[in-house]
Design goal:
By secondary structure, the protein is α+β, with helices and mostly antiparallel strands. 36% of the residues lie in helices and 14% in strands. The strands form 13 sheets. It has a 7-stranded antiparallel sheet. Helix 5 packs parallel to helix 17, helix 18 runs antiparallel to helix 19 and helix 25 runs antiparallel to helix 29. It starts with a strand and ends with a helix.
Length: 1890
């Protein structure tokens, strides 16, 4: 029973103490005046009476009523019902208000809206003050409060003859029951009657209509998100103009949360003065008047629900987790069925008559029923996860959150996780977890209706029926007697508030009220307490939670077969069948990814433990530990599936004897898992074990089970711990005091003993075996930062530990043992503190535990020391033998194999990803470091892959990144140190060192690698040491010094160059551009031979006089260089012996730089205009960066236009700087002269061109400007060419466009060259409409009247230009990328092609995205675009000077590409070599600097400028496959070896440096005998003689062919050099190594026939496809060689054979007049794309090759006819065996021939050829392909034979004869005896002729 009302209060308006315009509430009277003992008077009631503030009003407003809720310090809620009415203000009140009238009016507008009424009463200017009647109660009977306060107000207003004191007294003394469904009629003594109904159970909330109203105001989605927000502890704020609605909405939201209770701040109506409460950090549900909406705007983390507007606003920073699916969608649909039942029928053609929708009250209950069902589904089975920690004196219950989430399969679910961690759920567990208590609707639902709810899921009507049933029960709970609600309460008349009240509300007589109260209290004390006994029962647990099926799909789904495998493997281990177990182990490890298999493993292992101990031998122990580790590696820190819990008793049970008295337990090998350092895991385990033991205390011995089983569902018929507890709680009151004490003591000591047990267990799993090695602790977050480790999920996750670097203070990198011990002790102590306090262990026991823990830890450390010592002595497990790699001749091992695991590098193929194929990686093997390479050799760890050797290697010089990593080894899953090595040849070694490799060895490996990668000097690289170190097994040879050798000469040359340049310092290791102050001026007279000073190096014995001839020798050597050979080929000038010039030629070869005095990075001989004197060149060179002045490098044979290259111009004023430093003469004139020289030089270039050589230098095209290149002030008139109106489309075209475009793959992008480059092309109206694919417009766009010379320069450099009257050259400013952009782009490209770790999203999209991010293809697009532009200009007859950056990176790329596209010679093997030697090597591309070859270049990093050029060539090769003599492999080969440092070709930065090192001119007679190739070209030559690997069979060039490739990114392909890999032998570019691995031997047929085809599986990423399945022509050439060797003839070179076939092909094609010529290699399609199709068909006859030419012009014949013609022509491949002339067939006919051993007899067509002296045989007469040859030179005798097994039956014995050769005996059989005789005679005569 309880009082209906605790206090009645009268509050009125009073002046504000600070004198402001607002008033404040004053309590006029309160009853009773003394506080009740059990319920003190709540403070601050006056604020809540007028939440918007106390103000006077100009009108009398109607009375208002609302209920505010106050929460006291004990979380008790007090309901304050407030009825407010207005009375005329007293003069004092008015005075206060008039002080601040203006302010009041404003506030009336803002805050008082809704209070004004139309009528006013009283004189004008009269103000009204509010007065409030307040009733304070702990019960929530809103209607009763409204009626009671209304009655008091009515008595006052209507002047009824009833004493107010009596009514108030009766109200305060009214006593009503709390619950139980009774009803009480009360009367306050004013002729009124009210019926109060109490709910059936007070645990169910009373909602009236509040939930239904909330849904009406906000809608389903909004209410659901508010529901989730309140459950996950977010801040919720309601806004409305109505206070009653605010309190209803808050009440409704709380009703939805049932059975959870909201335990945070709950203020349905918040007064304006307390608005700062909204910025509290804790969650809340608060209602605020909408008038204060502005004040709530800046709250960043508050969810605002506007009830009047129907919106819910969630701030950006707040994430409300939604309900887990499918509950979210199910709840949503059921709610819509309840709220809008007509929705289902809306689409019906014949709608059924609608049933009337439920009343608002009923709808309210239906909505609540939906949420009640939702909670039952969310929390189903929660009682199975409760741990009874104590039963007496009070139950202590803990919830096993991880197990609950694991069994529900909702571990990842954010919503449930937050709910379970919240305060509301903690309250739910402590309140509802109690096993013996009164139950309510929710308990019934969650226990008995779960199955029904699951069955109803797919039947909406059944769900609705269930909802309605629940709603009935909820309604009945609120309204047990619906019919009897008869109220009789007087109400004031209509508009009574407008009538002038007779008097203000009177002051009540306190004494009288108090007397009534006292009387009632005295009466109550006499009466017996009417306590209704609660019905307490055992709470039903419901069915055990059936684990929701494994969510993981097929891959890890656990079929019974998998579990069977696990069981078998374990039984093999324990039966000692180790080989069987080993076979099954990989399958077991795979199966253990699934939860059921891990459970199965734990159960199986349990069976093998007797008396808590199982001693194993070493192998068994290893197997068990490996399986346990595999189980644990997938356990999260929560261990939601209880795997770690099940294994915990086992790790302390399985052990092995190391030596007498020393036993090693399994726990020392499974410590490396995050679960062991998670406090929550240990708590859950501890409570689970305590529950088991407490339960055992109260069970009969028969019922007791093995306590070690952890938390498992009890078997049928067994009593669970909750049942036992419930029984004990029921009996508890009946026990005697002593018995109670005894039980409490027993329970306490049980908990205490478990705490000791757990302190031991934790020390086992937390102390590392080697306590000096503290890596373990570093990796454990729970221990890593023990001081701050809290119980939250965050600290105990891995995240903390991995992020910590090794030197942070929290780790234990350099800690001593005591620190490890200390950390573990602190961890255990914290655990012990928490669990013991929660479980009620006495403080004495707790102190004892604290003393004990350090001793336990110390003792365990001592035990472990012995174990560690002994375990070190164990013989290591036999590991696979290390495979030695094959080395190149001269390659030596620096570090022998370190045992490592090679891990997958993020590319799918190797690990058997979507491409299929076996998982070749991870592999186990060793890494070797040699002088040339880093090599991994090993075998896959997956035994199913078989004995495949995995090789991955790359040259040391290609290493671009090396970092240490920590990774898990693939087999044992043990964290190990590893290395991550990335190379620019697109190999990646991600290795984990085996535990046997110590950190010292790993460190040594790193140091040696670094030393080899960055040698101090270029002479320490492999290319140098290879030649000098003598070959193994060969004595070192002494070199004789042959007088003034070339090396000496080159030394002198360098020395002289240094002197000439005024350098007096030692040679530097690294080439830097010469600094300004060192650039001296050479002597003016450059014509003579360079004079030499007398001081010679001490080492040279050459007298000064001898240097004249040596100088000539130098000249002749220079003349032999590639540049010079090419200049002569191009007709760019000759160099006669007397250095005289042929004056008629426009250009000459100048030896001005032969001593490298003018420009260090240029070659010795340069092409300059004939008219320019050598001494002028010195001055010109100063205007350009690095002195790289413009020189000619190529001339078009047709248009005679020349291509020049130079460095960029110096910036403004730099030229002046030079002069000032170098000469005493005044600077200005010199600067001018220098720039004039330069202009003269360009003029000379222009004049040297035949078209512009007329004396006047006239040019018809006006408006072109020349440019001064000096550092002059830029003029605004300087004209720079840009792309202008495309008129050329209509211009007169040239006849037929020469050259050809790239493949006609249409590209969606238009806009040709309109990129950075194209918008600034040379020529005012040069460009026609741009074409697709990035090709420039039709070549006809180039007009004849154009500038003679275009200078392509960097936009930034060409700013200082000024106009010039002679308009003969023009600037084309373009934007190009810099070398550093190439470097960053390449880094990204490397990461895209070889990611290094598994991509988050698999599939091609992530690769394409990262490829695009790298911008590599964009750069290639730019290069091709600029090159095609230059090609166009040259082709139209204008010369071009490319002058970009320093002239050695992008300039080189562009110039080389232009020559390659313009001149077919450079597309041959020899020409390409010449191009690279000339443009890249001689013109000083800085290979060593860009490739970071030495220690000095380490900081600059790797910049693959040359590789980018090769990629461009590859793109062109793809588009024009018939124009290149070399194959794509050749480009890859160069791409690999330009960084490998195997050859000396690509070392150093210029010819000058190569001479300095004595590399350029090798001695002619220096080499004796075979020697390793020093030059890559030499190697290519040697290899090309042996194999056609560098040759392109499709090569069929067209003369004078200019290529114009498409350059749009959509036309570019990723080079397979970046992506392909061959793990079978490593990279295929070291040919000797690639040949070593033996191919599977093909079965030879001794009779010389073709080999039988044998199937072979080719694996992606493992095998080399071109080698496993060579193209048809290579195959046929190999075949030829084999046949020749079989016939004992010296094999011809493949090239000769190929050339002969080509010649025969052409011959055969000519007379064949049908359709197109069927020539293989000559196309009838001159100007269009030709693609060559190669068809290879395997037929019974052997390989037939069919090549067809598909042209896009329709030629007379169909493809098939040309195909047949091609096939027929294939026979010419065998032309050396057969010709058309008949006289070569001396005799022919059919013979039976016996095959080789065990082969049958076969009829063949034999031909005796006396000319070639051989006997050939064919399958049949018409066959053109010879199946074999018997060389008659080898025949010893022809004798009669005898029939053997399988011979033809019908033939006479005399028809058999044998032919004996030196190698074998051939058995023959003719059709009859005469023909046999004839054959024998013919062969004999042939032999005698010979």
């Amino acid at each position: 029973m309880a009082r209906l009302a605790d206090y009645f209060v009268l509050v009125a308006f009073g002046p504000h103490p600070r004198g402001s315009g607002e008033g404040q509430g004053q309590i006029l009277q309160r009853f009773p005046e003394k506080d009740w003992e059990d319920n003190p008077f709540p403070q601050g009631i006056e604020l809540f009476c007028q939440p918007s503030g106390w103000q006077l009003c100009p009108e009398r407003n109607p009375p208002t009523f609302f209920v505010a809720v106050l929460t006291d310090i004990n979380s008790e809620r007090h309901y304050c019902a407030c009825l407010t009415f207005w009375e005329p203000a007293e003069p004092t009140q008015e005075a206060v208000c008039l002080e601040d009238a203006a302010g009041r009016e404003e506030e009336a507008d803002e805050g008082g809206s809704g209070r004004l009424s139309p009528g006013t009463s009283g004189p004008p200017g009269q103000l009204f003050a509010p007065k409030t009647l307040v009733l304070v109660s702990r019960l929530d009977h809103v209607e009763v409060f409204r009626n009671s306060l209304g009655l008091i107000y009515t008595i006052h207003v209507e002047g009824l003859n009833v004493g107010l004191e009596t009514v108030v007294g009766n109200l305060l003394t009214c006593i009503i029951p709390l619950a139980g469904g009774s009803q009480r009629t009360i009367s306050l003594g004013a002729g009124d009657r009210q019926v109060i109904q109490t709910p059936l159970t007070d645990s169910l909330p009373i909602s009236r209509c509040s939930v239904a109203l909330l849904f009406r105001q906000l809608g389903i989605t909004n209410v659901l998100s508010l529901f989730c927000a309140a459950l996950t502890e977010h801040k919720v704020l309601f806004l409305s103009r109505s206070y009653q609605r605010l309190s209803d909405a808050c009440r409704g939201l709380l009703a939805l949360l049932f059975p959870l209770r909201y335990s945070f701040t709950y203020v349905p109506i918040l007064p304006a003065q307390l608005l700062e409460v909204l910025s509290t950090p804790t969650p809340f549900i608060i209602g605020v008047n909408a008038a204060f909406q502005a004040e709530t705007q800046e709250l960043l983390d508050v969810i605002v629900a506007d009830l009047d507007g129907g919106t819910v606003t969630v701030p950006e920073c707040v994430h409300i987790p939604p309900l887990p699916e499918p509950l979210q969608s199910q709840t949503h649909s059921v709610l819509s069925m309840v709220l809008d039942p007509e929705l289902e029928l809306a689409d019906l053609a014949f709608p059924t008559p609608t049933t009337p929708s439920s009343s608002l009250k009923m709808q309210d209950k239906e909505l609540r029923a939906v949420f009640l069902r939702l909670f039952a589904q969310l929390l189903q089975g929660y009682r199975w996860c409760l741990h009874m920690v104590r039963i007496h004196p009070e139950p202590v219950i803990r919830f096993h959150k991880a197990a609950f989430l694991g069994q529900r399969g909702l571990v990842e679910d954010d919503f449930l996780m937050k709910v379970l961690e919240g305060m509301a759920f903690a309250g739910f567990v402590s309140e509802r977890g109690v096993p013996y208590r009164p139950t309510d609707l929710f308990d019934e639902l969650v226990a008995h209706e779960v199955a029904r709810m699951r069955a109803d899921e797919s039947h909406p009507q059944r769900v609705l029926r269930h909802v309605k049933e629940l709603a009935e029960q909820l309604y009945k709970n609120e309204n047990p007697y619906p019919a009897v609600a008869m109220h009789k309460v007087q109400r004031p008349g209509e508009a009574s508030h407008l009538r002038r009240a007779p008097r203000p509300f009177p002051r009540l007589d306190e004494g009288m009220v108090q007397w009534i109260v006292d009387q009632a209290t005295a009466k109550m004390q006499g009466a017996p307490p009417a306590v209704k006994a609660e019905r307490r029962t055992t709470v039903p647990s419901g069915p055990p939670m059936t684990a929701i099926l494994e969510r993981s799909s097929g891959l890890h789904g656990n079929s019974a077969r998998r579990l069977e495998v696990v069981r078998n493997c374990i039984s093999y281990v324990f039966e000692g069948k180790m080989l069987e177990a080993k076979k099954l182990l990989p399958a077991v490890l795979r199966a253990l990814k699934g939860r059921a298999a891990r459970r199965c493993l734990a159960q199986e292992l349990h069976l093998h433990v007797q008396q808590n101990r199982a001693v194993l031998d070493h192998q068994q122990f290893d197997f068990v530990v490996r399986m346990m580790n595999c189980c644990l590696q997938d356990c999260t820190s929560l261990d939601e599936h209880g795997i770690a819990a099940a294994l915990l008793p086992l790790v302390t049970a399985f052990c092995r004897k190391l030596s007498p008295g020393v036993t090693q337990f399994a726990y020392s090998c499974v410590q490396e898992h995050v679960v062991w350092s998670t406090p929550q895991f240990w708590e859950a385990m501890f409570y689970g074990d305590v529950q088991t033991h407490i339960r055992a205390l109260y069970l009969e011995p028969a019922e007791d089970r093995d306590p070690s089983q952890g938390w498992e569902e009890p078997a049928e018929g067994e009593r669970s711990a909750l049942d036992v507890a419930s029984e004990q709680r029921r009996l508890w009151p009946m026990l005697s005091r002593e018995k109670q004490q005894e039980l409490v003591q027993k329970e306490e000591s049980t908990v205490f003993s478990q705490a000791i047990h757990y302190a031991n267990r934790m020390s086992y799993l937390l102390l590392p075996l080697d306590s000096s090695k503290s890596r373990l602790l570093r990796e454990r977050a729970g221990l890593g930062d023990l001081e701050s480790a809290s119980n939250s999920l965050v600290t105990s996750s891995m995240a903390g530990s991995v992020a910590e670097s090794y030197d942070t203070e929290s780790g234990f990198e350099d800690a001593e043992t005591c620190d490890v011990a200390g950390a573990v002790v602190r961890f255990i102590n914290r655990f012990v503190d928490k669990v013991c306090t929660e479980s009620g262990v006495t403080s004495d026991h707790l102190k004892g535990l604290h003393v004990m823990v350090p001793d336990i830890v110390q003792m365990h450390i001592e035990t472990l020391e012995a174990v560690h010592r002994e375990s070190k002595r164990l013989p290591p497990i036999q590991k696979p033998k290390l495979l030695r790699p094959h080395l190149l001749p001269g390659e030596e091992c620096v570090l022998d194999g370190l045992r490592v695991y090679l891990l997958p590098d993020g590319r799918e193929e190797g690990s058997g990803g979507s491409g299929g194929g076996p998982a070749v990686l991870p592999a186990e093997g060793a890494v070797f470091l040699t002088t040339y390479r880093v090599i991994f050799t090993g075998m896959p760890t997956d035994p199913l892959v078989g004995e495949q050797v995995v090789v991955r290697s790359f040259p040391v010089a290609a290493l671009t990144k090396e970092k240490r990593i920590s990774v898990l080894t693939p087999v044992d899953q043990i964290p190990q140190d590893g290395l991550h090595l990335r190379s620019c040849t697109f190999q990646l070694l991600k290795m984990a060192f085996d535990e046997e490799v110590g950190s010292e060895k790993a460190e040594l490996f790193r140091k040696q690698l670094h030393k080899l990668r960055y040698p101090l000097d270029i002479r320490s690289t492999f290319a140098f040491t290879l030649g000098s170190g003598h070959m193994p097994g060969r004595p070192p040879r002494a070199t004789k010094d042959k007088g003034p050798s070339l090396r000496t000469l080159s030394r002198n040359l360098v020395k002289n160059a240094k002197k000439t340049m005024g350098r007096q310092h030692v040679t530097r290791k690294k080439y830097n551009p010469p600094s300004y102050e060192h650039r001296g001026q050479p002597p003016e007279d450059q014509e003579d031979a360079i004079s030499v000073s007398e001081e010679l190096e001490p080492g040279t014995l050459t007298p000064a006089s001898a240097l004249k001839p040596s100088d000539r020798m130098t000249m002749s050597s220079l003349v032999e260089r590639a540049c010079c050979r090419d200049y002569q080929r191009l007709g760019l000038g000759t160099l006669s012996s007397s250095l005289s010039r042929a004056k008629s030629e426009p250009f000459r070869i100048s030896p001005v730089n032969r001593m490298y005095a003018i420009c260090r990075s240029y070659p010795g001989l340069l092409i300059v205009p004939q008219s320019v004197q050598d001494n002028a060149l010195q001055r010109v060179s100063r205007c350009y960066r690095q002195n790289r002045f413009p020189v000619v490098c190529w001339r078009s044979g047709r248009s005679k236009a020349v291509l020049l290259r130079s460095g960029g111009l110096h910036g403004k004023g730099v030229v002046g700087l030079f002069k000032a430093q170098n000469t005493p003469s005044p600077g200005q004139s010199q600067a001018d002269s220098s720039s004039l020289e330069q202009e003269k030089y360009l003029q000379a270039v222009v004049s040297s061109m035949p078209r512009y050589a007329d004396a006047s230098g006239r040019n018809t095209l006006s408006g072109f400007s020349s440019a001064h290149m000096g550092g002059h002030v830029p003029s605004p008139r300087a004209r720079v060419t840009t792309l202008s109106n495309p008129m050329a489309a209509s211009a007169s075209r040239r006849t037929a466009p020469r050259g050809k475009w790239g493949s006609v793959r249409a590209s969606g992008r238009s806009g040709g060259l309109s990129g950075d480059v194209g918008s600034r092309l040379a020529g005012r109206d040069m460009l026609g409409p741009p074409q697709a694919n990035g090709a420039p417009p039709d070549p006809g766009f180039l007009r004849p009247q154009r500038a003679a010379l275009y200078i392509i320069g960097d936009k930034a450099q060409l700013k200082g230009v000024r106009p010039d009257p002679l308009q003969q050259w023009e600037l084309v400013p373009i934007e190009v990328f810099e070398a550093r952009q190439v470097k960053t782009s390449f880094k990204k490209l490397l990461k895209a092609c070889v990611p290094g770790c598994q991509a988050l999203e698999s599939g091609p999209t992530s690769f394409l995205r990262s490829l695009e991010d790298s911008e590599w293809l964009t750069q290639i697009h730019k290069l091709l675009q600029v090159s095609v532009l230059v090609v166009e200009l040259l082709d139209s007859g204008s010369s071009v000077l490319v002058s970009l950056e320093d002239g050695w990176d992008i300039t080189t790329q562009v110039v080389s590409l232009v020559q390659l596209l313009s001149d077919p010679f450079y597309r041959t093997l020899e020409g390409f070599r010449l191009l690279v030697e000339k443009e890249w090597l001689s013109f000083g591309h800085r290979f060593s600097h860009r490739g970071a070859h030495t220690l000095a270049g380490q900081s600059s990093g790797f910049t693959p400028v040359f590789l980018q050029f090769l990629d461009c060539v590859h793109q062109v090769h793809l588009q024009f496959p018939m124009e290149f003599e070399f194959s794509p492999f050749y480009l890859k080969f160069l791409g690999y070896h330009h960084v490998s440092r195997r050859f000396r070709t690509f070392l150093l930065d210029s010819d000058y440096e190569r001479i300095e090192q004595g590399l350029l001119y090798e001695e002619k007679g220096e080499r004796k005998g075979p020697q390793a190739c020093r030059s890559v070209w030499e190697y290519v030559d040697r290899l090309s003689k042996r194999t056609p690997v560098f040759y392109n069979y499709m090569y069929a060039p067209e003369d004078t062919e200019v290529l114009r490739p498409y350059s749009n990114v959509s036309n570019l392909k990723v080079w397979d050099f970046y992506t392909e890999e061959t793990l079978a032998q490593g990279p295929p570019y070291d040919w000797e190594l690639a040949q070593v691995s033996p191919e599977p031997p093909e079965e030879e047929r001794p009779d010389g026939g073709a080999p039988q085809s044998r199937r072979r599986v080719v694996w992606p990423c493992y095998d080399s496809r071109p080698r496993a399945q060579p193209d048809a022509i290579s195959r046929l050439l190999e075949e030829l060689q084999r046949l020749e060797t079989e016939l004992g003839r010296p094999p011809e070179r493949w090239k000769d054979n190929w050339d002969r076939v080509k010649a025969a092909q052409r011959l055969e094609g000519r007379p064949d007049g049908r359709g197109t010529p069927s020539s293989l290699l000559v196309s009838s399609v001159p100007h269009h794309r030709r693609s060559l199709g190669v068809y290879l068909q395997e037929g019974p006859v052997g390989s037939t090759l069919s090549l067809s030419l598909d042209s896009d012009q329709s030629s007379g014949s169909t493809t098939s006819s040309s195909r047949q013609a091609a096939r027929r022509s294939t026979s010419t491949l065998y032309s050396q065996f057969q010709t058309a002339e008949s006289e070569n067939r001396s005799y022919e006919g059919t013979l039976y021939k016996k095959g080789a051993f065990m082969k049958p007899w076969k009829a063949r067509w034999f031909v005796l050829d006396k000319t070639k002296h051989q006997l050939r045989y064919y399958d049949h007469r018409m066959d053109t392909e010879c199946k074999g040859v018997i060389d008659l030179a080898e025949v010893e005798a022809v004798v009669s034979g005898t029939p053997t097994m399988g011979a033809p039956k019908t033939v006479d014995e005399k028809a058999f004869f044998d032919v004996k050769t030196t190698r074998r005996v051939y058995n023959f059989c003719a059709q009859d005896v005469p023909s046999a005789q004839q054959w024998v005679d013919q062969i004999q005569s042939c032999l005698s002729d010979a």
